[in-house]
């Protein structure tokens, strides 16, 4: 059973505080006032226009992780295109009973903009947000992407991404969306929508080319410089997470106490196929820069690309060794001058950072995965 008040909250954020919903989305309502709620095990994940002309451009870009989920998604798209979405389980109609006037001033547009929203609702948690793809009513193209806070930490991450995009685009143009609007009081941001198809491949030269372009020559950092920040984050963790973190933290921090100078890099923070797009056959760009930072250590995003897919796709492998032996990675490491001990320490840093982040965001299963991978590396080193 879905939470009707939660759905109303989202619609009111996107449209108007005075909006009134009806759960009897009958044919009496204008087509533009009718939407579908697409659920996953009683959790709403999408709010899409009744008219597939405006929802399909967005849904076609979505790619679930597993093969079975991908096939189910393709069937959903077929049903949506055929006007038969209501026949699928977990699909609920909803309508806007009040005026259809759209109050786009809340995201920096004039009210007369003819934009149709398709809304993705993030997974439950403290960083949960609504990602709204605004489709041009005339062209059916995606005009822009707006982000609204739903979780207690989501506003912080939305505003952080807005700040990152402002600085990143000035230093590294052509690799990310442009920020169009941000409201620090409401925690809402709007950015350009990047054309292109999402990546669904193992590592290719294009991935390494993009990672290389994120490098910041002339800016020197070290693992040692990041120890203090990691330790501070461990100390802030509460309850069981704090106990868990401290048990392993001292050992890890001692191993990371390495002053070797390294060239800093922008790290994306969630460098994964679903956040990468082909803008042509050889060039990649990235979206969703909420976890990005400019003072990153090399290989962080490379490790994330490998480990996060292993976890989410349940394809458990010896990621550390397989990545080291990958021909493309071997050449990349030679150019960076990184040997195997340094490679292991950088992997340990990445996994520790992701482990702590998972605990901070109350994602216990994620944290368990990264902790297991840390243990694997420690067994090989100690």
Describe this structure in words.
The protein has 382 residues and is an alpha+beta fold. The protein has helices at residues 4-14, 52-59, 67-81, 154-171, 205-213, 223-236, 239-255, 300-312, 319-325, 327-336, 340-360, 364-381, and strands at 21-22, 34-40, 43-49, 91-96, 115-121, 129-136, 142-149, 179-183, 188-192, 197-198, 215-221, 262-267, 276-278, 284-286, 293-296. The strands form three sheets. It has a nine-stranded antiparallel β-sheet with strand order 1-4-2-3-5-6-7-9-8, sandwiched between helices. A three-stranded antiparallel β-sheet has the order 10-13-14, covered by helices on one side. It has a three-stranded antiparallel β-sheet with strand order 11-12-15. α6 packs antiparallel against α7, α6 runs parallel beside α11 and α11 (340-360) runs antiparallel to α12.
Topology readout:
Blueprint (H helix, E strand, L loop, with lengths): L3 H11 L6 E2 L11 E7 L2 E7 L2 H8 L7 H15 L9 E6 L18 E7 L7 E8 L5 E8 L4 H18 L7 E5 L4 E5 L4 E2 L6 H9 L1 E7 L1 H14 L2 H17 L6 E6 L8 E3 L5 E3 L6 E4 L3 H13 L6 H7 L1 H10 L3 H21 L3 H18 L1
Antiparallel strand pairs: 1-4, 2-3, 2-4, 3-5, 5-6, 6-7, 7-9, 8-9, 10-13, 11-12, 12-15, 13-14
Helix pairs in contact: 6-7, 6-11, 7-11, 11-12
